[in-house]
Amino acid sequence: MRTQSRRRPRAALAMAAAGTLLAPLLSGCWVGAGGTGSGGDSINVLMVNNPQMVELQKLTAAHFTKDTGIKVNFTVLPENDVRDKISQDFANQAGQYDVATLSNYEIPIYARNGWLQDMDAYVAEDRAYDEQDVLAPMRQSLTGDDGKLYGQPFYGESSFLMYRKDVFAEKGLTMPAHPTWQQVADLAAKVDGAQPGMRGICLRGLPGWGELMAPLTTVVNTFGGTWFDKNWKAHLDSPEFEKATKFYVDLVREHGESGAAQSGFAECLNNMTQGKVAMWYDATSAAGSLEASGSPVKGKLGYAPAPVEETKSSGWLYTWAWGIQKASRNPDKAWKFVSWASSRQYEQLVGDTSGWADVPAGKRASTYENADYRKAAASFQEMTREAIEGARPRDPGVQPRPAPGIQFVGIPEFTDLGTKVSQEISAAIAGRQSVESALRKSQKLAEQISKEYEGR
Predict the structure, then answer these.
(1) CB neighbourhood size of 3 (10 A)
(2) pTM given for the model
(3) Taking the mean position of all CA atoms in its chain, how far away is CA 26?
(4) pLDDT, tens digit (0-9, with 9 covering 90-100), for 127-169
(5) Cα(395)–Cα(351) distance, rounded to whole angstroms?
(6) DSSP secondary structure string for all residues of 245-276
């Protein structure tokens, strides 16, 4: 049964998405329904301050406004702040912002609540945009329950295994073409200590629904577990969920990085760059940093698909995408910006002006057919594409799911639930409690969600 079958008042949905959906870090600078929105030949865009977005901001006036006459007023904020500001403006349909950066977690929820403009008509009329060039998993993850498109990806990622080829060669080890998690654990034990201060693997242990729970949930999926079954019954105390969690915790405790309970993406990236770990399972987007000019490990890395056990693939799927607010005063102009910012022409512009390594990739098939990009990202581009195309956002495990999502459950309550569960499991990684104890507490938290959804 799909999540849209729930019967909840609109006000309750707005509160859920504006509160539980996002971390409670209110910026205090929201302008309500009486605030100033866009008008005339301008649009307002609210976006996260990631490097790719900052580059977009620099290129817009000379390459979009000059051609279209549409002025773009950007508001650029850190991730937690931008999520809060977006949720407030879109939930209230204040119309202050025409376009915002949203992920494939928020877009289906926002669409369900009627906060987004669907893009089907624009896509049909804008032949130059070439929607079919967008990778299928990206299109699927940005589609609402009604089958309409509500977002266009700016860039995308999956997850894979990164490893030191030189260290493996020195130890006489070979990475399987499609490793299982047990093979990874065995390899981690063999390369642990291969160089002074080097540990076998880095895995996130930092609490957070988007930190620890992202990689761990992919492990749960491929071990046969799930957060909820198709009838919304919580399964965090199931043998499969417990086996996967215990495997992950044991692996990082035995062969993982120092201070694992406080290590997230940034810490693992530093560990891999500095030669402190021989393997790392995480986002495909990390490869660009590891292979960047000046990186100590540039050219020393190999890449393998996300490890599996019972599924054919297990990589996650994530995208920063553009959503148009339903209350936008200029939806047509907003689409022109979205179309430009997510187009292959924009990627060409970035390649020509900043270099192909900086292209916001992971969303279009044509990117991976471009000779310039393939050369710049030769060591990881094909593996990244395969990981994204192999992702199964609506069918990531061995059983039917009640909501979409690979590394998350696509409901507003997951941010709060996932964060609380991650705190319990991080405590197990730190040795402050057993996995069994962590999951008993986590099951009770999940059962509270089950009570709201079961039978609907």
Answers:
(1) 19
(2) 0.83
(3) 22
(4) 999 999 999 999 999 999 999 999 999 999 999 999 999 999 9
(5) 35
(6) HHHHHHHHHHHS-TTGGG--HHHHHHHHHTTS
